[in-house]
Amino acid sequence: MTRTHEKVGDLPEGGYDVPTTPGEAAARVEQALKFLDGRWKLEILFQLFGGRVQRFSELERAIPDVSQKMLIQQLRGLERDGIVRRVVYPEVPPRVEYALTEWGQALCPALDALLRWAAVRGALPVS
Amino acid sequence: MTRTHEKVGDLPEGGYDVPTTPGEAAARVEQALKFLDGRWKLEILFQLFGGRVQRFSELERAIPDVSQKMLIQQLRGLERDGIVRRVVYPEVPPRVEYALTEWGQALCPALDALLRWAAVRGALPVS
DNA sequence: CTGTATCCCGTACGATACTG
DNA sequence: CAGTATCGTACGGGATACAG
């Protein structure tokens, strides 16, 4: 594994069922964003992108200022939503590893689109 | 139908300056998402996508359950961030129109990417 | 029609202490 | 190492009333 995601962009190339009303479309995007909603979720995701697998303590060190409580809480949320996978090794001392699911990896192109959007701020006429 | 953004995708095709660290990338996406953060902003955006210009009262009617206070508040935020443009006509009775700026229109591909991501939920192996 | 001004409340988050 | 438990607070957002 640890397939980086050079080709993740090609998922259902044919298209997906298109929202019919503005309200419906908004609701779907809102639901998608709800998965990402949380002070530390994006930090976690970017730490895990590219197939990187990390232990709890590694994440804790990689993300300055996050508390144990918050790190766990956000990881639990991501796990419950099927974005992050948690693997426990029955050892002493305990060892737990976190990685993205395939769906989690599929987030990459979407976040990149947001990055691009943010990047053109100011490069466009005031309109 | 309502393929709102057939050709909006071509912005700075060459690429944008790429974040170097996970933390930096996360911070940029967080900032982008902060612009969209607000209970009614996505609803408003989808009402305005495709170049549709709408009056305050039209938006109020188009978005059920939104209060005047919240509608104004969210519109003010979008305006301050350069996503929405507000045009006042000095008439009696007052008339105000809202539309997306070019940058606001440029959001379309990014939101569409999120839509696609949400759409593949379940179509991917549990990993 | 297009807004302002208050009051109120739930909740996400931080700080801190404790545990198998 | 990898969590759990508890308390305190800031803030987004709903309800309502008022105004140019």
Strand order of the largest sheet of chain A: 1-3-2
Give helix and strand order of chain A, one letter per element, not per position: HHEHHEEHH
Distance between the termini of chain A: 46 Å
Radius of gyration of chain A: 17 Å
Can you name the CATH architecture of the domain at 39-120 in chain A? Orthogonal Bundle
Strand content of chain A: 5-15%
Please describe the topology of this protein:
Two copies of one chain form a homodimer.
Chain A: H1 22-36, H2 41-48, E1 54-55, H3 56-62, H4 68-80, E2 84-89, E3 95-100, H5 102-105, H6 107-119
Antiparallel strand pairs in A: 1-3, 2-3
Chain B binds a DNA duplex (20 and 20 nucleotides) through helix 3 and helix 4.
List keywords for this structure.
homodimer; 127 residues; mainly alpha; Arc Repressor Mutant, subunit A; 3-stranded antiparallel beta sheet; 6 helices; 3 strands; 47% helix; globular; disordered N terminus; DNA-binding
Description:
By secondary structure, the first copy, chain A, is mainly alpha-helical. Chain A has a domain at 39-120: Arc Repressor Mutant, subunit A (Orthogonal Bundle), CATH 1.10.10.10. Helix content of chain A is 47%, strand content 11%. Chain A is built from six helices and three strands, in the order ααβααββαα. The first copy, chain A, has helices spanning 22-36, 41-48, 56-62, 68-80, 102-105, 107-119, and strands at residues 54-55, 84-89, 95-100. In chain A, strands 1-3-2 form a three-stranded antiparallel beta sheet. In chain A, β2 and β3 (95-100) form a beta hairpin. At the A-B interface, α1, α2 and α6 of A face α1, α2 and α6 of B. Chain B binds a DNA duplex (20 and 20 nucleotides) through α3 and α4.
